[in-house]
Amino acid sequence: MSASHQRSISEPSYRILGLESSCDETSAAVVENGKLILSNVVASQATLHAQFGGVFPEVASRQHLLAFPWVIEQALKEAHLDLANVDAIAVTRGPGLPGSLVVGVNFAKGLAMIGGKPLIGVHHLEAHLYSIELSGDGGTGSQMSFPAIGLIVSGGHTELVLIQDHLRYTPLGATLDDAAGEAFDKVARLLNLPYPGGPSIQAVSSNGNPQAFSFPRAWLEGTWNFSFSGLKTAVLREVKKLQRYRSVLPVENLAASFQAAVVDILVGKTLQAAKQFEGRCILVVGGVSANRALREAFLQQSELPVLIPPPHLCTDNAAMTAAIGYYRYAAGQRDELDMDVLANWPLSALSNPLDV
Ligand code: KG4
Ligand code: ZN
Fold first, then answer.
1. pTM > 0.90: yes or no
2. Which atom of ligand 1 is nearest to the CA of 124?
3. Where are the domains of the chain?
4. How many angstroms does the Cα of residue 186 sit away from the middle of ligand 1?
5. Span from the CA of 222 to the centroid of ligand 2 (angstroms)
6. What is the CATH number that goes with domain 148-304?
7. Cβ of 286 less than 6 Å from ligand 1
């Protein structure tokens, strides 16, 4: 009997339908056993928000409402499944924009009710961590080895986490002001580059000199915290100074020098933490982990395995929601239909269903 045949007899297979709407992507996905992507449909609102230079919350919630019916239908269709064939519905409960979260949670409740399926509310940052396990659709299918050090870098968060085991975390530090992605978005606006700022800065940086400007690095020694607002202000000051005597800004050099400062801090602090806590691997997840310079720096400088999802699984998607939904479903988590969103849900407040 083949190994795969033995597995299908001895281990149950769970398919989770995940929904994600914490910010400006409307997404639905079906994932098997927390790993294999059967479908992952993402409708991005980025072009809609580009005209405002950032996410406009009311526009985002209205757009989620319009997009979800098609996105969910498409996710089931691409997975060749009906609602009846999925085992549970996982949905991002927080943190995120309250109005956007409410739309996803209500669609999930509707599906749970119609299909008679368990409902599982998941933490968006925990979902980002589990994006490294996804396989199929370009996923790395990586296995975490514990203890692991997780760096979560997105538009709303920059957090360093010690991961002791599946579903067990100790947050080590976080940004004291702007998130790394927020800094990319704000500096892009200063340089008149389009939203979202991360990909725009990455693109122009490839023609720039990262040593052209010496921007400050806030190391915040003795803590695992980060700070990016001083760096952003330093870029602003440099731009104002240059504008006094130059009609054209050296955008490529400014962008590359800013990006190099962010990369130095993120890589430096994460490697220090990995050493101190004797990590066996490093996870780098969230929208900013799509950054090429950051990925290259981690891979060059780390002696430990660095697990980073492919760029399209770094930014928000429901496959990662379904992946963590599987772990929580398997651990016994079930939520009630009166479950509310938690827009400011800290990772430290996450309960472990195995402890209950
Ligand atoms: O994880 P994500 O899709 O949404 C949140 O949960 O916030 O992250 C979005 C953030 C944005 O700030 C965007 O500018 C940044 O990720 N981002 C990048 C890149 N791609 C997206 N930052 C740097 N380089 C990139 N290539
Ligand atoms: Zn995210």
1. yes
2. 6
3. 3-141+313-355, 148-304
4. 12
5. 28
6. 3.30.420.40
7. yes
Domain 3-141+313-355 CATH superfamily: ATPase, nucleotide binding domain (3.30.420.40)
Nearest residue CA, atom 22 of ligand 1?
Answer: 198
pLDDT digits (tens, 9 = 90+) for 251-273: 999 999 999 999 999 999 999 99
Q: How far is CA 150 from CA 23, 100, 106, 144, in A?
A: 21, 26, 30, 10
Give the Cα separation of 215 and 230 in Å (integer): 9
Which residue in the block uniquely carries the two structure tokens 């989770």?
Answer: 16
Q: Which of 315, 317, 320, 344 is the pocket-test mutation for ligand 1 (most atoms within 8 Å of CB)?
A: 315
All residues at 6 or more sequence positions from 47 whose CB lies less than 8 Å from its CB, including other chains: none
Q: Which two tokens stand for residue 181?
A: 């992605």
Q: Is the separation of the CB atoms in 79 and 38 below 8 Å? A: yes
Strand order in the sheet with 119-123: 119-123, 88-94, 15-20, 25-32, 36-44, 135-136, 139-140
Q: How many CB atoms lie within 10 A of CB 355?
A: 8
* Residue-wise pLDDT tens digits, 11-30: 679 999 999 999 999 999 99
- Does ligand 1 come within 6 angstroms of the Cβ of 291? yes
Q: How many CB atoms sit inside 10 A of residue 282's CB?
A: 21
30-47 in b/e form (b: 16+ CB < 10 A) is: bbbbbbbbbbbbbbbbee
- Mean pLDDT across 269-279: 98
120-175 pLDDT per residue, tens: 999 999 999 999 999 999 999 999 999 999 999 999 999 999 999 999 999 999 99
Residue 171: its H or E element: strand 168-174
